[in-house]
Protein 1
Amino acid sequence: MKRAVRIATYNVHKCRGLDRRTNPDRIAGVISKLDADIVAVQEIVDAPNGRPEFDQVRRIRSKLTGYEICFGENRTLHGGRYGNLTLSRLPLKDCENYDITWRHRERRGCLRSDVVLPGGAVLHLFNVHLGTSFVERRHQGRKLLGDEVLSRGEYTGPKIVVGDFNEWTRGLVSRLMSQAFEAAEPRKLLRYPRTYPGVFPVLHLDHFYYDEHLRLSAFRVYRTRTSLLASDHLPLVATFEIP
């Protein structure tokens, strides 16, 4: 029996929109419209004791129904934590954040969330935000695919790697990931594949990679008037069939 799971990736840019307003409630509204079982969020602040607009994780979760959360802190910001967040309507079994920082560059992470699927199988979802430097990404790509992260032997369930790879050409990371995983290629699958920057997107920075246990059945960029302003990225949404 096949089951379907809908997954989204969304760089929310600290909930700061292209209109320069920092508005977690607006981001929550976009996420709710995705109707995704799992949402991988990048660039989010968790500062509950600071200014209200930086209490982003709590405010977004309070606007959504039925989601568990897993947070991966990469550094501190605005008196709180800053990093990646995974929201799941399916049970979360375990979470782990991997440090993939290169030298003196900004701290970066890959957040693994183990999601329990109907029937008991575990889906390993990796929520990634790579650096902006070409040399930095080369290091991060190799580390990501090494024994410390994606190639660890205990991950026996299906794997999906999503997020902001900051790579708009076919660089080393794209080549390495495509050798190890199936790739959802927006240029091949979508008429309008670009996700960055919001109002007039010209680059494709956000990616989906998945293993042979999964079959991609639907794929789209979520483009609405609100999503075009809410962040400098547009969400990507994919539906997978899982045996």
Protein 2
Amino acid sequence: MSYLPDPSVLLVAGFGVFLIAFMKGAFGGGLAIVGIPVLSLVLDPISAGAVLAPLFVLMDIAALYYWRPSTWSKADLVLLVPGLACGTAIGFLLLKVIDRSMVAILIATITLAFTALWFRGGGRIVQRPRSPIKAMLAGTASGVSSMMAHSGGPPVALYLLPLGLPKAVYAGTASSFFAAGNLMKVAP
């Protein structure tokens, strides 16, 4: 017996995948951060993440080809990647014990916090200096949410956007950060 999903599920899932693939590939992130929450409307976040894993590997190859090391903020990657590794390990351990609905709540909370902070600031980006502590927290939160549901965009955006990086540097840094994270997730 074959299972045919509801056409509305396919439509919403297709839109979520499009948002992620197009926005990450074309803009190095941007609106791709809303793709998993959209996909989570019709799939539990862990299943949505499993569906997207092969797509992310292909996107990382293309992103690293386009966003060369000259577009990376190496100073920020040095601060973010250790937290990413720690968060990926924590996320892997949590996957074994956490309820899938808790993952959905976590993703929703992070996305709403990102949105609230954006609106609280009037949609403006106020440039702030680098902070190793904020970078570690953002990297760890991104690693956890990325490992659990490929939804690590909001935490790292909360750290990178206030730095006032040029658009190409933001996109290159985000692309290389998530390529490193997806590479870390291959074994688990």
Protein 3
Amino acid sequence: MSETVVPLPRGFSAHVANIGIKDATDDLVIVASDRHCRAVGMFTKSRFAGPSVVVSRDHLADGTSTAVVVISKNANVATGADGLADAHEVVERTAAIVGCSPSDVLIASTGVIGRRYPMDRVRAGLGRVTTPFATHDATAVATAIMTTDTHPKVASATCGEATVVGVAKGVGMIEPDMATLITMLFTDAAVEPQDLQDIFRGVIARTFNCVSVDTDTSTSDTAIILANGASGAVDLVEFEKAVESVALALTKMVARDGEGATKLLEVHVDRALDRSQAKFVAKSIVNSPLVKTAVHGADPNWGRVAMAVGKCSQYTDIEEDSVVIRFGDQELYPTQVDATGLATLTQYLQGEEVVIHVSLNTGDAEATVWGCDLSDGYVRINADYTT
């Protein structure tokens, strides 16, 4: 596990602590800016969206924020009016600490569904928080929001005088729909509201919305970016590159750290009718339990990829004779390989990263998605999750 210190951008600081939500590891994070921020958020479409999502959606209506509070190891989902009241109380207490309006505080939660926050511990923990915050390390923030993650996920990039820093958590219940898991990006760049929204939404579509561990969409998916402008204006093209660099790095970390995962799986579909078709087919491949288990076992069964493409039956323009399937640079269909080629493929599949490349030959669009193999470790982690 890397313990490298990654500093938060100028003007941001954090409080990280354990308040006894589940165990002795850190489970409370507050990240605050010393000035008002432009802010954008994207959230789960789940019909069981948690109170943290409900509150944060409301607080982001004006496109601004000052702080975000995260409680890990308890999702506070499916807890009714009491759970919503608890989320509001956490936000109000955080606002009092930071010195801002409750509407300027966002909240995220992650963990077991169906359990309210242990509010006696939460109140006591928040009561011990003092300002100014002492932490400026994004790695500490990333560590405190972990649940079944095996290591903290943090990435950074520069853009002129500004910095973009991102953290993420999530290794299970990962099949994003409008956002993903919990990921927070912070920057000291000055960006106009519409530009920030357009850039962030576009980046999310190309990164976090292209990762899947197990096809399950979380009730608490939250992706936010806060920009406080402390380092001034930036070139928007370069800023978008920096945001995408951070988001893509975090996306791959999430996929690589999938529960029980041993390999990063990248699926690239090109020569598709449009991006929607390319992404749908790529997701069909990366989400197939048969493909994922073949990758895990280094089984050169490329027919499972053909199956995953073929079941996208709504696309009648996909023709069997036109599809090309490759693992890495090795073509497996329609030019099939002999025993020597299969042995080479088996050796390739034993690596830590596996790339599946499919050309549909229905157009000129493309998409890339990321996931992981499926091991017995995934079953064990989730069979024992609440016990």
Protein 4
Amino acid sequence: MVMGNRAPNKLEWRIHVRNGTSEILQPETGLVHRIWSWLKGLLGEFMLKIWNFLEKARNIAVAEPKKVIHCLKVGVTLTIVSLFYYMRPLYEGVGGNAMWAIMTVVVVFEYTVG
């Protein structure tokens, strides 16, 4: 159906209303609208990923609380040892062997040992 100066091959979306009439949906095609829709989709996808991660972390914490405690201990310890490793005076005094401190933390704090 061609109405006015519309192209005959263009797809048209209609909504049928209860009173028997129909309305044509007009897409919003502005650049600002497309950018805004893209940003909303990107933010929504990011929030969904964060929510899924937190849900999985909660399920692990409920099932095995020892793993969560171990994870926190290893994370804090590796952070502190890495900060010492990247400090200039420690690196100059000990040399390249300071990296073994980080490896020691990883091996000593292995979850399945002991």
